[in-house]
Amino acid sequence: MRHEIRFSGFGGQGIILSAVILGRAAALYDNKNAVQTQVYGPEARGGASMSAVIIDDEPILYPKVRDPDTYVIMSQQGFEKYGCNTRDDAVMLLDSDLVHDRPSCRYVGIPATSVAKKELGRDIVANIIMLGALTTATSVVSGGALEKAILDSVPKGTEDLNLKAMKKGQELGIQGESS
Amino acid sequence: MQGNIACAEGALAAGCNFFGGYPITPSTEVAEHMASRMPKITGSCFIQMEDEIASMAAIIGAAWTGARSMTATSGPGFSLMMENIGYAVMTETPCVLVNIQRGGPSTGQPTMGAQGDMMQVRFGSHGDYSIIALCPSSVQECFDLTAKAFNLADRFRTPVFLMADEVIGHMREKLEIPDSVEIIRPKTLPEGTLPFTAGPDGVPGFAPFGIGRFTHVTGLTHDERGYPDTTNPACHESLVKRLVNKIENARHEIADYTIVNENARYVFVCYGAPVRTVKEVVDRMKIPDTGYLQLKTVWPFPEELLLRFPNVQAFIVPEMNLGMISREVERHVSVRVIPVGRIGGELHPPEELIQAVKIAGGDV
């Protein structure tokens, strides 16, 4: 089974880290192959950011995502630049407060940034909420693998906060506004 | 793990204990990782120099103390290193340079991939010489080939270049780190042998500073004692021919490659990131009559490998430049050579190579 996942948002949201964590979860803990790439521009914060992961049972040869089946979109600009030409059978997780448009494919809207700020006190974990939602709204990665990869990747002292964010995302992945 | 970090880890696994460098996108993670790892390893030294000229000088000096030394850079820094690269060649200093290639000329495209330095690495410093250049196409090869580069540098007493690119350097994928890597150190210089007297393979033994031998090291044309002899044509000819031949005559030993579908009519010759597209086209999509030669060693150019394809009608050479190694292929074969040069920073998509196969087959 092969999945191509594209993440987009604005610089500073942790779009690249999200892809790194997902790839790590798949490669090290779900025992699959994964390749992570990104659009790596000089713009650091604020501009449209994109990163991508391919997850496959087979070795991954061509490393760039070309035809995503899964999207995680966290800004309107990211939607316009990377999320508006989806294939019909794709699924999109979007931050429902920050993305105003809705795609023609199946989607799950998750108010990740506002939940992160209001319920967890730190909007910086919005990306982890989105990753948590990915485990319940899709089959690209298992919850157990994601949890281990998050713990590998986040700064010491923030483990509990990030795991709470993941769990919140797992709930929202089932309950969120969807088509 | 990221390709750049795999380069750093491959170097450390090979016992690299001196890194002198100056950060530059897209190679910075190599230096950054070495800066974090090396202070924790006894006997290791990381130093950030004031620029790339000094970085290259530092790794040459470190090598002459017996260290396994390395630097990492990209195009603009690589240009600055050219003068001292010639000095390393002339003084037969074993060292490793990682070049994570980006779009040029000049500062060009700092964050985009390219393979535009493939001729510069071969010919960029002045005078006649040869070097060894390796090209990884995966994170695993970043690790493996960087480790191997140190052995080749010591075996042949020459700078060895890991010519990666931004695509591979910034990509993350699975890496299996071996329990240990093979380490080959330079031949020692036997007692009573002059410091630049070479064996039959053209490589002199190495007596680094501090072991009690007093070696004169100069970039001037020198005799076997190491003393300048700059107006004697015979001395210059024998020295420079030895520097070239110690590498060119060892092409077979140095060549690291993969051949798939020897009987193919349309054969890709590829190195670095475009290997990934070639594998997609040949191994996964199984486009009929296609095969490939992946060069992990690009220099010295292993020309004999081109003769391994008895049915070839055309060689297709995809590169992230406007045609560099394709010219090298052309020099050695009589069949058609189709360069597929792509610049701008993005890897060739599979369709571009399938189109080249159609052109080779006369379908277009």
Question: Which CATH C-level class of the largest domain in chain B is it?
Answer: Alpha Beta
Beta-strand percentage range of chain B:
15-25%
Q: Quick one: biggest sheet of chain B?
A: 8 strands, mixed
In CATH, the homologous superfamily of the largest domain in chain B goes by the name Thiamin diphosphate (ThDP)-binding fold, Pyr/PP domains
**How many distinct folded domains of chain A?**
1
Which CATH class of chain A applies here? Alpha Beta
Give me the CATH superfamily of chain A: Pyruvate-ferredoxin oxidoreductase, PFOR, domain III
The helix count of chain B comes to 12
Number of domains of chain B: 2
Would you tell me which CATH topology of the largest domain in chain B applies?
Rossmann fold
Secondary-structure element pattern of chain B, one letter each: HEHEHEHEEHEHEHEHHEEHEEEHEH
Structural Rg of chain A: 15 Å
Features:
heterodimer, A: 179 residues, alpha/beta, Pyruvate-ferredoxin Oxidoreductase, domain 3, seven-stranded mixed β-sheet, 6 helices, 7 strands, 40% helix, 22% strand, globular, B: 364 residues, Rossmann fold, 2 domains, eight-stranded mixed β-sheet, five-stranded mixed β-sheet
3D architecture notes:
The complex is a heterodimer of chains A (179) and B (364). Chain A has 179 residues and is α/β, with parallel strands linked by helices. Chain A is 40% helix and 22% strand. Chain A has one domain: Pyruvate-ferredoxin Oxidoreductase, domain 3 (3-Layer(aba) Sandwich), CATH 3.40.920. Chain A has a 7-stranded mixed β-sheet with strand order 2-3-1-4-5-6-7, sandwiched between helices. The radius of gyration of chain A is 15 Å and the shape is globular. Chain B is of the alpha/beta class and 364 residues long. Chain B contains 12 helices and 14 strands. In chain B, helix 10 (274-284) links the parallel strand 10 and strand 11 (290-295). In chain B, helix 1 crosses helix 2 and helix 1 runs parallel beside helix 6 (139-156). The longest helix of chain B has 18 residues, at 139-156. The termini of chain B are far apart. The mean pLDDT of chain B is 97. Chains A and B meet through helix 1 and strand 2 of A and strand 8 and helix 10 of B. Strand 2 (33-38) of chain A pairs antiparallel with strand 8 of chain B, so a sheet runs across the interface.
